[in-house]
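Bug report

Summary: structure tokens for Galactose-1-phosphate uridylyltransferase-like protein differ between web form and batch submission.
Environment: batch mode, default settings.
Steps: 1) Submit the sequence below via batch. 2) Compare with the web form result.

Sequence submitted:
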Amino acid sequence: MGIEFRKEKYIRPFHNPLNNFAPEPQEVELRFDPLLEHFAVFNPALEDKAKLFFGAQDWELVKKLAEATKEQCFMCPPKVREITPKYPEDFMAEGRLTRGECTLFPNLFPTAPRHAVIAVGEAHFRKIDEFEPGVLADGLYLGLEFLRLCMEEDPAIRFGLLCANYLLPAGASLVHPHFQVVAAKVAFPRQNELLNASQTYFLKYGKNFWEELCATEKESKERYIAQLGRVTFIASFAPLGGNEILAVIEGAKGLSEITTDDVLDLAKGLNLALKGYDRMGYGTFNFTLFLPALDEKAPYFTPHLRLITRQNLYENYRTDDYFLQRQLGAELIITPPEEMTKIMRQVFEEA
């Protein structure tokens, strides 16, 4: 049967104290991911009550945090290229990688056999709509180059990911924008899940799921946002995180097939997607670029980046990640992907 966008709707009444305990139907929609054993939950009543979950991003508070931390920030120049850790010369000739305004160096507290940090740009603080394509591309390029070096140094290090946390609610410990790169001998759990499911689909249907997904979404246009070069941007039908956007590098089968043009197009799309998030009222994000084994050209898998929003930063903000996501493995939809697509498509078209 191939790709299926399956939904299940349940309507149950209860007596609402906000309406004199009158009976009120409540609808819950489950959306099942077409590849993974995962579903996301949508209650239409929440769409108009998003402020109960997401207060407005307080950019003045963020600026105060930036001002208070700028002087001690080791990612700001010139400190980033003077006092940050360095790799041994037999792994990296200069100890760090640099490109444009971006610098890659070892994480002082690694969580993987290889774990690097990339200071993205020289500016200590930039709003979510101020990530220029050039600085994003340089940061992405350094991350991919680091993974190539890891593979060359130790062929047993076969799996890697390029990730980002932007601001405190997304898990960042610093205001200064940065990416992180991790590499290990085994695939990380979500990476392993995606690889196994993609391979199963390929063996069952004889087709690459990601190519099929892009073709299907382009035809329906419900969640298709834009195409930049070989990179297709679509909204996830059953997102794994808030307002998830997929950026699929069509035609690439692995790390070795991601070109400089792909990186530039990915960066351009990221810039526009972040502007779209800003238009929607969001100010934080995570992303991960998922890859097959670093030494593999996988016919069943296509490298793709998954971009999500996180809780906005304001005084006494609460986490957006609770039992539903953290322990049950589901996700809550606030804005339907199809509605987000309309906003994102407008931003891309304006550009």
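Above is the batch result. After comparison, the two runs are identical; trailing whitespace caused the diff. Residues 133-153 form the longest helix (21 residues). The chain has one domain: 50-350.
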